[in-house]
Amino acid sequence: MEHSYLLAGPLLLAAYGLYAKRPQPEDIFSRPREAYGEALKAYGPVIGVRRKGNLEYIVNHEYARYVLTCDRLFSFEQGSAAIMNLQPIMALTEGTLFRDLQDFVRDGIVARIDEIVYRIWPLFQRDAKSFVERAAEGIKSGQHPSCFDHFRGTIAETTLILLLGQDYVNHRNLEIVEEVSNGMAELTGQYQNFSLVGKYLPILWIVYTWIKVMLISIPFGFLRTYGPMVWKDIDRYQKMATSGNLSPKDEPRNVLYLIVKTYAPQSGGRIGFFRRLYIAILLLCTVVSQWVLYQLAVRPEYLGPLREELSRVLEEDEDGSLRLTAASLREARLLDSFIREVMRLKGDTISTMRYTTCDVPLGNVIIPKGHFVTPMSTTVHENPEVFGEDSRAFNGFQWAEQNKEAVMTGPAHIVFGLGRFACPGRVLAINEIKLIVFSLIARATPTLLEGKFEVADPLNTVTQPPKGTLVLNPLEKPYL
Description:
Blueprint: H1 8-21, H2 25-30, H3 32-43, E1 46-51, E2 54-59, H4 61-69, E3 74-75, H5 76-83, H6 87-92, H7 97-108, H8 113-141, H9 147-163, H10 171-187, H11 196-200, H12 202-243, H13 255-263, H14 273-282, H15 291-298, H16 303-313, E4 315-316, E5 322-323, H17 326-330, H18 333-345, E6 354-356, E7 360-362, E8 365-367, E9 372-375, H19 377-381, H20 384-387, H21 398-401, H22 426-441, E10 444-448, E11 470-474
Parallel strand pairs: 2-9
Antiparallel strand pairs: 1-2, 3-6, 4-5, 6-9, 7-8, 10-11
Helix pairs in contact: 8-9, 8-22, 9-10, 10-12, 12-13
């Protein structure tokens, strides 16, 4: 055919058009909302995307509920273990890791939330007061302290008290909890998107972090310091749990005792070495978010109503001092609604993973066995069919009007997952967020030095706080 070379231009243009429509590797990490959103709009409700060496299937709001609740086809445990690089621990626990964690959180924390809030309130009071004092000095010097780093220490101390007991609390132990928590965060992929090796050579990254955390940080940090004391307490608690002479009200009030009681052999033998190691590993989880404070800093119109609510729900101790309890936090409906709205709109893209247990027909494709499947959270949380045409508009108090609490999950709110494996620790997490926010806005007004904040990791807003300099201006007349 004469002049066939004239077709080269249109063909190249068409090829470029097809290429441009595909989510590009760097776009997946830098602008995932747009990259995944455009692909879902162009190719349908189910798309396949290669990321970190895996072929992942992303679904929109149409199939989100089905994927998250049908564990027979889409396994939460296999998906979470694989995406968090925890398969060896799953094998060590004979596949019960996540079910055990659910049980321990439900029985050891959620069931005792009133008592727990009463115990941890003084910690948040103490640290909020000290942080506001440091923040006031920072305004003068220009060296603003990090709210995230400061309250990470508070969460570490809270974790230590709840899991092991007050006897374990000292400065060195708190440092180790933070170090190992950071190591576990790295091991489970929370910082993987910041590393070029993590993005493009994931196997090498996983091997490196496993060696670093499991062979160095935990043995030479956590186990060397805590090991002898925890080992001793495991023996002591096992004798108490199997004696039959202890009434429930006299049992130790920490999660370690509950774990030992669960694993104590009925035959009277001692808990084996690998179970003891697993018990130690279970004690390393802590997460905290600063998104609420950053949103309050850019939405100061919400501070007045929230402070009025704080004044209304505060309770008096026997000595006349003011305090917050689990009951008063439950009455803080406006703050609860604000937290829920922040979580809905903070930009979650893909978070909770599932793993196909067989070949599954879904939409216009058949997803092969052994592949990751996850909903695109923004299509759920910003669905115009549920939230109207202006679905991305922030309305902080709408959930108080609708009687929907921050801990409630649903087909249009999957921040904490959905179904039987919805996050079991969400009750404690929301209470801790309320304690942090109330303790700070009672003493200071949050602002941002830059006037705005940036998303540190657009692909992981669940465990990464936003980037910005939070400035706290002390109130002349604090509420606490």
